Amino acid sequence: MRVVIAEDNALLREGLVLLLRSSGHEVAGVAATGPEILPLLLDQRPDAAVLDVRMPPDFRDEGLRAALAAREQLPGLPVLVLSQYVEETYAAELLGGGARGVGYLLKDRVGRVDEFLDALGRVADGGTALDPEVVTELMSRRRRDDPLAVLTPREREVLHLMAEGHDNATIAKFLVVTERSVHKHIGNVFTKLDLPPSDSGHRRVRAVLAYLNA
């Protein structure tokens, strides 16, 4: 996989480069400031991009803006965004453009190598990888706007894990239930939320995230 990295912290940037290369991936380019990102992405057209949200010169949302602009010019470009904290507005804006091939992780997650590489792989394959804390924030916002009273506690747990990008087998392990039970809960979630029932991986995740961003 060819990956472009955008991170202003030199130590973290070099750590990401080393991690990706040692895992068999190619680092197609690195950017240390916001203005460098979009030209680099357009020039290299990588298989995936790992971008910090806040980049020089203003340390506001340069990385996010570059990600949104890149996905407009390179439709479907997989983007994994990193952030120091849960920034709900940024997460919602990124996901608002369509949930396929996007991820939002807290930087602490990078230190958990297997989790980070798994998330990057899912995003590169067109899936979604959201930090559990990000999912919690989005669901909390949704509950404030339109309570999820129609869902049972178990259905909310399943929805939460679906939004993180987990498949039925993984959800079943987390909840210590059978895959058949998970399948039934998913069907109930889609029915109650007026979403078309489907177990087709990316499609169901996009539907859940569309609901969270409604």
UniProtKB/TrEMBL annotation:
Residues 144-214 form the HTH luxR-type domain. Residues 2-122 form the Response regulatory domain. This is Response regulator transcription factor. It comes from the Bacteria. Keywords: DNA-binding, Phosphoprotein, Transcription, Transcription regulation. The modification 4-aspartylphosphate is found at residue 52. Gene3D superfamilies: 3.40.50.2300. It comes from Streptomyces cavourensis. The keyword Transcription regulation applies.
